[in-house]
Write a structure and sequence with these properties.
Chain lengths: 349, 131, 390
């Protein structure tokens, strides 16, 4: 059976804060940070945006692009580490707002930055088993970085929705296979009731990100008997600009293969949206027949790898919704005070 | 606003679901169960609005209503939907960009919340339609 | 139907009356009006009280009973008391109910009162309470405030007719100038156009000085059948018309956002009933909750061509001594706007003027006066015409 992507949609808030502005507040050296993180600025939600509104906008964009009847959606899974409610699903909000209710199942996912791709895998399972016709998988976040923490330079806002289906004629990309590599690795967490996450500093790198990304990627290529050269594009989770570049290099992917999907430089790490944002940006320009290799990473820790082949249908639907490049142009820059207000870092009581 | 009171109109708030009178052709948003023109003789059916329209008039609120204080200054407008009816909504983004006649389209945003512990109210606002 | 006259009036001081409660205020106004009329409590057949939001301002409903009780009309006399609510037009509608009671013969001596105690809550709570006069679900939920709704009327009026912020400011300047001569007025100081324009912006284009204030106060009038009015007073003032009209609760559903159709229709009904036209009216108290509201009101009542309300104001036609003096009391802007009381205060002002007792703000030789009381952004309008002559 062929499983794949029927449509995709992305959303990025219009507001940005530059690395310089955050560095100015904390007395850090912006030039060193920009060089080290390979991030210039990050997206910030509007005062009236959160992971749910971003998920809805991304899902509506996917619906506009795919132009199918929303009642066909049989499952909505939203992955986020910043669900607006601790208890009460984001996915029901999304399902209602896209007109998919009530004939469906829904739940929220959390797996740090890979909750979105975990949702994709769950939808793949439901679709391929025939339990549902279409599955809507979303990764959306308004991620939190504690004031002055290193994460504050990259923790951004954005989301991507993928519609997963099995009807070959309506797929814009076929997902050939997926493979995951998961261990219990406490590199990053946020305790219940805490506003900001904690992380293991440099421990997040080698035993966290790189171990899981490379093992998942190698595992999938072994399973499919493919090599980096078989792919036109590659996308890796991008917590900053440096990690995905290093991971690509370690696995043997070229700079050119990862370039289209490397959106972190201009919008930061959109967490559950991060890797999927890179995929959306790549689909925005891929040609029919192109192959895309994608590996997401979520702290805690695990990686999901996907092997994807673009179909002819991409040309028909691509322009029916905004491309990532269109979403991220024309930003409105905030100073730190405005940013603090937007992120709710100013307490009123 | 209480949970059931908000929930009752969720479809209208999320998706601009209104009504249409098949008898006289008038569209209603917010929805009406009784046609203003035909009254009991009207034939009301559900109708989902496209979400595009233009600004009839607007203001920039500097002294906000309770619950909207942190959003000031914000643009509030009367928007005429392309199907005919008018509604009141915020225009998100830079209030300076809002003018009478501005084309707008609907977006999904937070309308407010019942404090830090209560329910979050989601719904429709509008944004300049640059397309 | 019987002709009806007003035989007694009384306003309390209007303002931020920290040491006075709603019941104290309304008793003061009620007893004052009874004394002015020279009637006794035993003569009173019914009491109507306009009150917009006792529930939200002082957490008290059943205002009719409360007021009858504390006026001494309950335990021994058991006078029927009814609260009337139509947002800021509550007072005007209470008057109308009282008029209909006397005209129909159900009662002879009837009190129409209005009262609001607004300063027991903080200003943001007061704003929220007032915003309940708009459509809570489809205007309030979007972040609309009352100044915001009237600002949208102002913006479109400016766009369509070229009305200016300066012309809006002239309304406030004139009403403050009138308020100087009204001892009950909340503000008795003159202001300038520059002061209005440099005051803080509330909802663009309306500044804080374009807005009526938050006010405590109560007013009452005593009504009697015209045929017996001379028993009580040498100067009964006759009700020539009472009219009321409705429009959509939400501003966005109106036929024309810059016209209050409820005002237009109620005015037409009132003019027909009184058999007079705008030219016969010597002075008018209009509902200037915001400066733009007075401009729309004088247009919709027929005192200015549509779109020219700002112009005629700036040219002084609505000042005392002008063609049609508007808001000699100082209006809602300077006299203050205890929302439920305003409609009654407007009637009391016209009665005072037609009696020739208005002192420094007297309009000489006035024969016909009019009141115009609006609820919400124009969903309710109550209009009354009064005359010295039966």
């Amino acid at each position: 059976m062929t499983i794949g992507i029927v449509s995709y949609g992305a959303y990025v808030p219009r507001y940005r804060i530059k690395v310089e502005e955050i560095a100015r507040l904390w007395g850090d050296d912006a030039e060193i940070l920009k060089k080290g993180l390979m991030v210039l600025e990050k997206s910030v939600p509007a005062l009236d945006e959160d992971a749910a509104t971003i998920a809805v906008e991304a899902a509506r964009s996917a619906l506009a692009r795919g132009a199918f009847d929303p009642s066909r959606i049989g499952a909505v899974y939203t992955g986020s580490e910043s669900h607006p409610y601790a208890v009460k699903p984001t996915s029901t909000i999304v399902a209602q707002a896209v007109g998919a209710t009530p004939d469906l199942t829904a739940a929220d996912f959390e797996f740090a930055c890979k909750a979105g791709t975990a949702a994709v895998q769950a939808c793949m399972g439901l679709v391929s088993s025939g339990m549902v016709d279409l599955g809507l998988a979303i990764g959306a976040d308004v991620s939190q970085g504690a004031p002055s923490d290193a994460l504050e330079y990259t923790a951004a806002a954005g989301g991507v929705a993928l519609v997963i289906g099995r009807n070959e004629s309506e797929l814009c990309a076929v997902i050939e296979d997926t493979y995951s590599f998961t261990t219990d690795t406490p590199d990053f967490w946020r305790r219940e009731g805490q506003p900001y996450p904690e992380h293991g500093g440099r421990f997040t790198g080698e035993p966290g990100y790189f171990k899981h990304v490379t093992n998942a990627a190698k595992g999938l290529m072994k399973k499919l008997d493919t090599k980096p050269e078989d792919y036109d594009y590659a996308v890796f989770h991008q917590p900053n600009g440096k990690f995905p570049r290093n991971a690509a290099k370690m696995l043997g992917f070229s700079k050119e293969q990862i370039a289209p999907g490397l959106v972190v430089t201009k919008i930061g790490n959109t967490y559950s949206g991060s890797c999927m944002m890179g995929l959306a940006a790549t689909l925005d320009q891929a040609k029919p027949g192109d192959r895309i290799f994608m590996t997401a990473f979520g702290s805690g820790a695990g990686s999901d790898s996907f092997s994807i082949t673009v179909t002819d249908r991409i040309e028909e639907i691509r322009d029916k919704a905004p491309k990532v490049s269109e979403l991220i142009r024309d930003p409105i820059y905030l100073d730190y005070g405005q940013y603090a207000k937007h992120k709710g870092k100013i307490r009123f009581a | 606003m209480s949970v059931p009171r908000f929930w009752r109109n969720l479809g209208s708030r999320y998706n601009l679901e209104g009504t249409h009178c098949k008898e006289c052709g008038e569209y209603y948003y917010p929805p009406r169960d009784t046609c203003v023109n035909c009254r009991r003789l009207g034939k009301i059916e559900a109708y989902k609005f496209k979400g595009t329209g233009e600004v009839v008039t607007f203001t920039v609120i500097h002294t906000a209503a309770e619950g909207f204080e942190e959003q000031t200054p914000y643009a509030l407008a009367i928007i005429k939907l392309d199907e005919g009816p008018c509604l009141t909504s915020q225009i998100v983004g830079d209030p300076e960009k809002v003018h009478i006649g501005l084309r707008v389209r609907s977006v999904f945003r937070k309308l407010g919340s019942d404090g830090e512990r209560g329910m979050i109210y989601y719904g429709t606002k509008f944004i300049p339609d640059e397309a | 139907m019987r002709d009806v006259a007003i035989i007694g009036v009384k306003n309390t001081k209007y303002g931020e009356l920290w040491d006075r409660s709603l019941r104290q205020l309304v008793v003061e106004a009620g007893i004052g009006a009874i004394e002015d009329a020279g009637v006794s409590g035993k003569d009173i057949d019914a009491l109507y009280v306009g009150n917009m939001s006792g529930g939200r301002f002082i957490d008290q409903e059943h205002i009719g009973a409360l007021i009858a009780d504390y006026s001494g009309l309950s335990r021994n006399l058991h006078v029927p008391a009814t609260r009337v609510e139509a947002a800021c037009a509550s007072g005007g509608l209470a008057l109308r109910q009282a008029i209909m009671t006397v005209a129909s013969g159900y009662g002879d001596i009837v009190i129409a009162a209005g009262a609001e105690k607004m300063t027991d809550v903080c200003s943001s709570e007061a704003s929220t309470a007032l915003a309940a006069a708009a459509d809570r679900e489809w205007e309030g939920m979007a972040g609309a405030t009352f100044p915001g709704l009237y600002a949208m009327i102002a913006r479109l009026h400016m766009h369509k007719y070229g009305t200016t912020s300066e012309q809006l400011a002239e309304v406030a300047v004139k009403n403050h100038s009138n308020g100087v001569h009204n001892p009950i007025a909340q503000y008795r100081n003159k202001i300038t156009v520059e002061q209005v324009l440099s005051s803080i912006m509330v909802a663009d284009p309306l500044h804080i000085f374009d807005c009526s204030p938050i006010t405590d106060g109560a007013s009452a009038v005593v009504l009697a059948p015209a045929e017996i009015a001379h028993k009580y007073t040498d100067t009964p003032i006759y009700i020539k018309a009472t009219a009321q009209a409705s429009d959509t609760i939400a501003l966005h559903d109106r036929r024309d956002i810059t016209t209050l159709d409820a005002t237009v229709v109620a005015a037409r009904r009132a003019y027909e009933m009184a058999k007079v036209g705008p030219k016969d009216i010597d002075l008018v108290e209009v509902h200037d909750c915001f400066t733009i509201a007075e401009i729309c009101a004088i247009e919709d009542l027929g005192f200015a061509e549509k779109g020219k309300g700002g112009l005629v104001t700036a040219e002084g036609e609505t000042a005392i001594g002008g063609r049609i003096p508007v808001n000699t009391s100082g209006g809602l802007k300077a006299c203050g706007h205890p929302v439920g009381a305003t409609g009654i205060k407007q009637a009391a002002e016209i009665v005072t003027q037609l009696r020739g007792e208005a002192g420094g703000r007297q309009v000489d030789g006035a024969e016909y006066g009019m009141t115009h009381n609006v609820g919400g952004s124009g969903a309710t309008a109550a209009i009354h015409i009064f005359s010295r002559n039966r």
